[in-house]
């Protein structure tokens, strides 16, 4: 397979109007090779959609997994975010958090499912995110377990408020989460403070497992950057889609 064939990607841009967020929101939709609207496809929804496509190279990885590894074709939906208000939408203490979760589940999902032949079983939808995108993906699943069972968390920012919400759960046996964190993320500065992401992820893994969740957990040499996460995306996608 040539690099040229892997770079030939079909990406459609969409814009939806959100009554919950009271603004428009841009989406990027990756359609797999030999896309056929008469078929149905598993779907991966990504927070930080622009970064997953630009820095994570997720469309190129998807082409490679489908064309070279024999993975069944799937659709990717990247949900873009304004980085200036990202924390307000992705963190439980943010003033747009509830509105964002409602927008995602009640507006974005129905919009995509009306326009594209994505499968509507919670085991055929995957939520993916990095840092706060990883934690908000989990929060969406916790609030809407009828929609999502499968999460990819790349160095999830599972702050104290997120962990508290998890402690209120009693049965997470329906949840399956792929978690990875870099060992050099033990003192990372964010817009809300300095955090040890290794400890946050270890503690979250234990919280989830104690409540019956299936957790695939890895720690590797790596920092809190896309250079680390990009290389881990193929195995994360394969975990759920093979």
TrEMBL record:
InterPro entries per UniProt: AB_hydrolase_fold, Esterase-like, Mycobacterial_A85_antigen
Name of protein: Esterase family protein
Organism ancestry: Bacteria, Bacillati, Bacillota, Bacilli, Bacillales
């Amino acid at each position: 397979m040539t690099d040229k064939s892997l770079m030939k990607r079909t990406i459609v841009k969409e814009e939806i109007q959100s009554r919950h967020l009271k603004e428009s929101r841009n989406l990027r939709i990756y359609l797999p090779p030999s896309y056929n609207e008469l078929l149905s496809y598993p779907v991966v929804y990504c927070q930080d959609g622009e970064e997953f496509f630009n820095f994570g190279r997720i469309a190129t990885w998807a082409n490679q997994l489908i064309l070279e590894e024999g993975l069944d074709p799937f659709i990717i939906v990247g949900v873009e975010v304004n980085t200036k208000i990202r924390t307000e939408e992705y963190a439980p203490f943010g003033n747009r958090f509830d509105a964002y979760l409602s927008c995602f589940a009640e507006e974005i999902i129905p919009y995509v499912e009306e326009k594209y032949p994505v499968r509507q079983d919670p085991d055929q939808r995957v939520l993916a995110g990095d840092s706060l995108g990883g934690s908000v993906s989990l929060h969406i699943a916790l609030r809407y377990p009828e929609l999502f069972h499968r999460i990819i968390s790349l160095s999830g920012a599972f702050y104290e408020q997120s962990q508290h919400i998890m402690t209120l759960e009693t049965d997470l046996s329906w949840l399956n989460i792929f978690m990875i964190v870099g060992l050099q993320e033990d003192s990372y500065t964010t817009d809300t403070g300095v955090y040890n992401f290794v400890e946050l992820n270890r503690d979250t893994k234990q919280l989830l497992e104690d409540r019956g969740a299936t957790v695939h957990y890895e720690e590797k040499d790596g920092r809190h950057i896309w250079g680390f996460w990009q290389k881990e995306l193929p195995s994360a996608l394969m975990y759920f889609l093979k």
